[in-house]
Design brief:
This protein is α/β, with parallel strands linked by helices. The chain contains 14 helices and 21 strands.
């Protein structure tokens, strides 16, 4: 079969690339090995984890509604119902992508795709192989959970994030290895539902790469909630014992538990793509190397999302998908990597865009900082979520916003305003001069912008 564009992978990068290409008039095919569309994010990542975070948050909140004047008796966790709701959300969204493929007349092939060189893709289908030809090929195969480095264990002893989204019972003691966003989110889910959770982190802080002040505050708040942290702890082994598992660490006492979750990051999913034979080069980390147009070292082959450099985020892959296809068809496409936000969906939420204080100091950039706490925000008080703050970093000379970091209620939604401001090159004065509705959480951004010039009104 001949197509203008063949996309390998139907995750956020792949399906967005396919749809955008079809909108621009190309004959598009998408190769995906799983029966459902949507990739890791939709099926076993972003969406199901947020569904469980929401269910567990409501369960925890229901136990403390008395302060709001709401009396609730006999609050109980119905884990099967929570898992069923999660699965229904996933099924609905994956079916929705299938409908979009039909709407845009995108040909879907189910099977594992591999490059065969010269614009050819081989699809390993049930019962045989199918050969496709395309003028352009986009590799968007996403990523896989990273294994624990240097740790060997019997099968079934160490879970990954996919496993932790489908536990059929609440663990008595869950050990999470890795204090990044995946480990903290899933650790939070099971702590809320009643598990004892211990988080082991190799570094001396949680959320490596995040603004240090925000990460330190987050650790204190999570500890108050019941998460136990052991920092500078390198896991050296996981073996069976009478309680289920024994985790041994360098720099920490052994831990007895019944579940171990490895959440030490993700690695590009490039196995079985036949990259070498197709002439597609990778860097030392295994990621496919591309130029500014997302072109690989093989003519006509492009790559986007988790298989190339940059943060492994669904929205980054989506933006790259749009830009890559528009480059192919129109000759122009753009992704501003300085304005890609990151969000941790814990309680409180953590969101950021742009530079951290540490990065600005390392680059010798002079900046001013404005901070405003949510405890001084009326809407936050009404919601009963007053922990955390908004921090805005602006260039000392130009006042242009260089970074925004939020820890607090609905930070993941609030960061969108900061992204828009930075995308348009706004100054902190610009943000401060925008009228924000009252009472809203967004007023905290306005006040933080005012605080850059030391003129916050309510703090």
């Amino acid at each position: 079969m001949n197509h203008d564009l063949i996309v390998i992978g139907a995750g956020p990068g792949g399906y967005v690339a396919a749809i955008r290409a079809a909108q621009l008039g190309l004959n598009v095919a998408c190769v995906e090995k799983t029966p459902a569309l949507g990739g890791t994010c939709l099926q076993v990542g972003c969406i199901p984890s947020k569904a469980l975070l929401e269910s567990s948050a409501l369960f925890e909140q229901a136990k403390s509604l008395g302060e709001f004047g709401v009396r609730v008796r006999d609050v109980a966790c119905d884990l099967p119902a929570m898992l069923q709701r999660k699965n229904q959300i996933v099924a609905s969204l994956t079916a929705g992508i299938g409908s979009l493929f039909a709407k845009h007349k995108i040909t879907r092939y189910q099977g594992g795709g591999r490059l065969a060189g010269g614009g050819r893709v081989v699809v390993a289908e049930t019962g045989g192989e199918r050969r496709l030809e395309g003028k352009h090929i986009i590799v968007a195969t996403g990523s896989l959970p990273a294994p624990l480095p240097g740790v060997s264990a019997d099968a079934g002893l160490i879970d990954n994030s996919t496993d932790a989204l489908a536990y059929d019972r609440i663990p008595e003691h869950l050990v999470v290895v890795g204090a990044g966003y995946i480990g903290l989110e899933l650790g939070t889910v099971w702590r809320r539902l009643g598990a004892k959770v211990t988080v082991l982190e190799y570094f001396d802080r949680i959320l490596p790469g995040a603004d240090a002040e925000i990460a330190d505050e987050a650790r204190k708040l999570f500890q108050k909630q019941g998460l136990e942290f052991r920092l500078k702890a390198r896991v050296t082994g996981v073996v069976r014992d009478d309680q289920g598992r024994l985790v041994t660490c360098e720099g920490s006492e052994p831990i007895h538990c019944d579940r171990v979750l490895a959440a030490v990051g993700r690695v590009p999913n490039t196995r079985n793509l036949n990259l070498d034979a197709a002439g597609v080069a990778c860097d030392a980390t295994g990621r496919i190397t591309v130029n500014a147009r997302f072109e690989t070292s093989a003519v006509g082959v492009y790559a986007i999302g988790d298989v190339i450099a940059g943060p492994m985020l669904a929205h980054k892959a989506e933006d790259e998908a749009m830009a890559c296809v528009e480059q192919i068809v129109t000759g122009y496409g753009h992704v501003n990597y300085n304005t890609i936000p990151g969000v941790v969906y814990t309680e409180p939420e953590i969101a950021a865009v742009g530079k951290t204080e540490e990065q600005l100091k390392e680059a010798a950039v002079n900046y001013r900082k404005g901070v405003f706490p949510f405890r001084a925000n009326g809407r936050a008080r009404a919601l009963g979520h007053t922990e955390g703050w908004v921090k805005i970093l602006a260039d000392s000379a130009t006042d242009r916003v260089l970074g925004v970091h939020i820890i607090g209620p609905r930070a993941g939604d609030l960061i969108a305003e900061a992204v828009a401001a930075m995308e348009f090159g706004a100054s902190s004065e610009d943000v401060a001069r925008c009228c924000h509705a009252h009472p809203t959480l967004a007023e905290a951004l306005k006040e933080a912008a005012l605080a850059v010039d030391r003129r916050a009104i309510h703090f």
